[in-house]
Amino acid sequence: MAALESDIRLTLPARPENVAVVRHVLGALAGALGLPPAVTDDMRLAVTEACANVVQHAYPDDEGTIDVHIRPSEGALDVVVSDSGRGIGPSLATSGAGLGLPLIAALADSLVIERTVGAGSRLVMSFLCKRPTPAMGLT
Predict the structure, then answer these.
(1) What angle do CA 120, 121, 122 make, to 5 degrees?
(2) How far is CA 23 from CA 33, 62, 119, 133, in A?
(3) Mind listing the domains of the chain with CATH numbers?
């Protein structure tokens, strides 16, 4: 596996088409780093969901940005998705099933949610570059 030697930062307008841009950047980065497909898929889906949440909920009456920060850590990639919008809280739009954060938590190897009502949210997701192989036992 290749090493990421410095951080990558993306700041894009919080529009639906830019969620796809972030997903494609992550896929290309994962390919360049030689990440296992399962890690790549989990990372892309979790970060896509986090960015979609920003687009849908962070700026209900205004325009804003999605900030994505990818940084290497010991044996993992940390991906931080943040906004400077209304923060995570009860949504005024109830069109979703509310499964985004549980999905992200299930896909990431660790998740920290930092929220400040009215001052934005920050989701810090960590993805192990090499995951342990599950034990195959007979029961």
Answers:
(1) 135
(2) 15, 24, 25, 26
(3) 8-128 (3.30.565.10)
Does pLDDT of 76 surpass 80? yes
DSSP letters for 121-136: EEEEEEEESSPPPPP-
What mean pLDDT is reported for the chain? 86
36: Cα within 13 Å, side-chain hemisphere? 12
Separation of alpha carbons 129 and 109, rounded Å: 10
Rounded to 5°, the CA angle 62-67-71 comes to 170
**β-strand partners of 73:** 76
- Strands of the sheet containing 120-128, edge to edge, are 8-13, 65-73, 76-82, 120-128, 110-116
Q: Where are the beta strands (DSSP E) in 1-139?
A: 8-13, 65-73, 76-82, 110-116, 120-128
The pTM score is 0.85
Q: What are the tens digits of pLDDT across the range 56-66?
A: 888 988 899 99
